[in-house]
TrEMBL record:
Organism this protein belongs to: Saccharopolyspora terrae
Disordered: annotated span: 390-424
Name of protein: DUF3987 domain-containing protein
Highest rank taxon of the organism: Bacteria
Length: 424
């Protein structure tokens, strides 16, 4: 499967306008900007405004896992854009969000939001502000921690996503965090994620609480790619206004129209699917989409989730679905793929034949021709290469042609990947 496409429907309302506004100034992918924006805004809101579904509180707690290559994934670029906006928000906030970097252990995470002990009376009480944003730019290290015997990080993260109270169980004097509001944003490369995913994490729920979002560079900005100060001030002012007005709504309802629109989405998400890792990673769509929709609504300044918010959340979830299929369908040796694509691009519309693969490309790069043909088959599957049978003098010949839009490797021409238009 080719790289995912972000539907214009995902760029709804205030969230979409912010992404469209900042996208031309940065190399970051719109989907990564959108996911980190929604997640960070939801982390600032905390549990003061929430949905109540299946007898549980669901705040706008969205945990994106931004997945892209080290060379051109632009994961940190997207993170830096959104962080700059919220640093400006923090300048005028009475309740700035506590943010930390890195996840090492379950106990360490609990300590960040642990209940506080009065030095004089010894009384232990929950913190007044239990919000925490954790950014882990090396999420592969977290996945490695999951594999260690006795490590509690995986279970702690699952319970934190669920909104449960947390307690360290390995201490003689346990530390407790009552009803914390923890948000995690992770960055990882596709190779690291595939190599570190264990059956226990895929099927046990350690990873399907993350919103997997494929990311890549959209353009080259050698001059810096900085947000203009005026843009930062304007957007931050709007975000701060939303936070002041909507952080303590309590339960946020669905409008009657949203209730009606949710039913077919819910039925589609609930339909039986074949067992496998892709199905397991997508198993939490039913709680995820309402959480995302709630965050869209609050960003819009709405006190109820409406149809457009659900549609936007479903569109972002569709991007996650495509990201997971892309993740599992990726070609491991990307350098070989790019060499093969460049070789095909040289031939333009004439393409290359099997004899050229055997006698030219395979020999030149000391690769087995059969392996090159397997790579070609995957490129054909992803719509990057077409296969044609041509007739003329002699026997028909099979030609492999790189599609025109793929003839310049992505991210190297300096041309921008187009941000989806605003939905009607």
């Amino acid at each position: 499967m080719g790289f995912p496409n972000l539907s214009p429907a995902a760029l709804q309302g205030t969230a979409g306008r912010i992404v469209r506004e900042v996208a031309p100034t940065t190399e970051a992918h719109p989907a990564a900007l959108l996911a980190i924006l929604l997640s960070t805004f939801g982390a600032w809101i905390g549990t003061g405004s929430y949905l109540y579904r299946a007898n549980s509180v669901h705040p706008g707690r969205v945990w994106p896992l931004i997945t892209g290559r080290t060379s051109d994934g632009a994961k940190g670029t997207a993170q830096a854009v959104i962080e700059r906006l919220f640093r400006e928000v923090a300048k005028t906030s009475e309740w700035p969000l506590k943010a930390v970097r890195g996840l090492s252990s379950g106990e360490g995470l609990i300590e960040q939001v642990a209940d506080e002990k009065d030095d004089e009376s010894g009384e232990i009480t929950p913190r007044t502000d239990r919000r925490l944003l954790v950014v882990e730019e090396e999420y592969a290290k977290v996945l490695a921690q999951f594999e260690r015997s006795g490590n509690t990080l995986s279970m702690t993260l699952r319970e934190a996503w669920d909104g449960k109270s947390l307690q360290s169980v390995t201490r003689s004097n346990p530390v407790t965090a009552t009803d914390p509001s923890i948000t995690v944003i992770g960055h990882v490369t596709p190779r690291e994620l595939r190599e570190r995913m264990t059956s226990a994490e895929v099927f046990g729920g350690g990873l399907n609480r993350m919103l997997i979002v494929a990311s890549r560079r959209t353009q080259l900005l050698p001059e810096g790619g900085n947000l203009p100060d005026g843009m930062v001030a304007d957007i931050a002012g709007q975000l701060a206004d939303r936070l002041r007005k909507l952080s303590s709504l309590g339960e946020v309802p669905f409008t009657p129209a949203a209730i009606e629109a949710w039913e077919p989405i819910y039925r589609d998400l609930a339909r039986p699917r074949p067992d496998g890792p892709v199905t397991a990673l997508l198993a939490r769509g039913r709680p995820m989409i309402p959480r995302i929709a709630l965050t869209y609504a609050l960003l819009d300044g709405s006190q109820a989730v409406d149809v457009e918010h659900l549609q936007a959340a479903r569109a972002l979830w569709a991007y996650t679905e495509e990201s997971i299929h892309w993740l599992y369908g990726q070609l491991d040796d990307q350098e070989e793929v790019e060499r093969l694509m460049a070789w095909l691009a040289e031939a333009r519309e004439d393409g290359r034949g099997k004899s050229e693969i055997y006698n030219d490309f395979a020999k030149r790069h000391k690769k087995a021709a059969e392996q090159t043909l397997e790579t070609l088959a995957l490129l054909i599957r992803d719509g990057i290469v077409t296969q044609e049978t041509r007739t003329g003098r002699g026997r028909p010949s099979t030609r492999f042609i790189l599609r025109p839009q793929a003839r310049q490797p992505f991210g190297k021409s300096g041309s921008a990947e187009k941000v989806p238009d605003q939905p009607p």
